[in-house]
Specification:
The chain is α/β, with parallel strands linked by helices and 678 residues long. The chain is built from 23 helices and 28 strands. It is flat.
Length: 678
Amino acid sequence: MVRIRVFDPISSQAVEDFRKIADVIDDGWDFDIAIVRSRTKVTKEFIDKASSLKLVVRAGVGLDNVDQEYCGSKRIEVRNTAEASTVSVAELVFALLLGIARRIVQRTEEVKKGTWRREGGFELSGKTLGIIGYGRIGREVAKRAKSFGMVVVAYDPYLTKMDVPMLSLNELFHVSDVITFHIPLTDETSDLVNAKTIREMKDGVILINTSRGGIIDENDLYDALVNGKVSFAGLDVFQIEPPNSKLLELDNVVLTPHIGGSTVDASDRVGAAVVEQVRDFIKKRAEVADTSQSKDNFYLVTISSGDRPGITAAITEVLSKHNIAVLDAEQATIQGVLALSFLVEVGEAVKDRIAGELQKKAEELGLNLKVTPFGELKPRKKKLYELTCLTPVPRGEILAQVSRVLYNNKANIETIRQLTGEDLVALELSVDVSGSPNIEKLKQEIMSAGKELGFDVALQKESVFRKSKRLIVFNMDNVLVDIDVIDEIAKVAGVREALSKLTENAAEKGLNSEQKLVQRFKALSGVSSNALEYVASKLSLTKGAKELVKQLKNMGYCTAMVSSNLTFFTERLKNELGLDCAYGNKPVIVEDKLTGELEKPIINGAEKARIMLGIADKEKIHLDQVVAVGNGVDDIEMLGKAGLGIVFQTKGEYKSYIGGSIVQTNLKSILYMLGLSE
């Protein structure tokens, strides 16, 4: 029977329910399941002592007291009860805040001492509450704040939509009268509140923390409470618990002993949720494979479980021992849940024995395993393309729209894989287009869907070259930097109107791209090198540019920039980003001023493509291994000749040879389009 040890207090009903399904032990380290709250630290030493441990259930929200990485290496499952204490924590926020607003603690002590002081205090109505972390608890806090008439704003880097105004962290600091924290303790959030960030806050701000103590530097908070920058603080959590802090000396703090989730109601809900987690775990371990008695030789072996190392090796070792032919295999993991399938050919005489051994192995590993007859094999020739969709947060509408476009074009989804990075989520779909009558039409519709819904997308033929690109060529304006540099020079020099007129005249006369470019530079005649220096100092890299180039360089890519802009800027940007080479137009300068003329050859659209081909030839790189990233009309020829042409935030229509489109502002999307992740 499964053995459970409860390390931290939990409801008596939960313990009683445990006894109905398992042995509950009071001490010792011979147990299968550990039940903990925040007090007990499940460290490497803890795990090594509990040699039979298979499941850790954290009764509550956070998991920062559990060494999840080491648990994973030991094939120990970790679960929590994230929702059970939501309401209790949200209500404590207002218990602390109301205690501060009406000076409840101070007035209680005064009344007991015979002092009858009625002045002071303030209303919550009309005050601005800033919520950092807009998950379950943050949303519950917002509901209650609105009922008090508070103005609610929030910051959460993992969300793109909220039912309250979304602000940056600094913006929230600047406008909030009260700030409450509902975030986990991570490397990014550790000491989030420190002397520097406190200086960004409003004078007299009130801080409420019911999440994790480590997000506030208590020494810096103490100084701010003493000098009045922070008027009050309400704290339920501390860097060290119980606290031994200078904060205990102050009158303008309200302190509670980490009781956020410690209500009778929350305790009952947490207990019930923990019992349910344990029941589910025991049930899954007890399930055995349903072995078919069919006489067919082909069988589908399907396995599902929490993902951990060694599952595939264990199952394939059983198959290999009996020389079982594996005809096809597929493996996928979603949110830590493994789905693994093998199509095998098994002789009639040994199929029962093989199924029995697989079942035994599944029981040993706690897997859900099924063996079902497959019937007749029907081989089909496939024509595979890889479709990549990128967005800052998962959005169901994207997959729905993409799936509809594929269906309308008779394309079939073979697999879907999600890659999650620091600030992007990528869906990678393997698509069979063998039934699609018009690939270019399919590509156009996919690109249009990306533009309409605001997600980045790439559709590429699956080949040996897709993940073996070796050269990437960027345009500069509106790609590596987020402005049109010529426009910026004209603005600084006060000739923007003249530039606009010349550009309009060039368009009306039907001039070609080189002639238009020459006309634009004529408007800059007389501009001093000081103006160029000033514009250069103001150049801002597009989000993700530096990280993208660094990653590509680490992977051995040749990185280049080909621009119709001035070498004055391309050379500086080349040095800043560490590009291998950069090409731009060289201006004619007389007496430290632009003449409006360019030295030949002039780099226009055709010349950009020629330079890219020359780099590839010099580096002996196949064109299918070349990526080009552009934005305007002058980039079309270059994009068309590259193995993968990517348009970045274009306002125009997509050409059929464009393989990728980025509509967001993050160049790191390109990594995913190359079949890579961070």
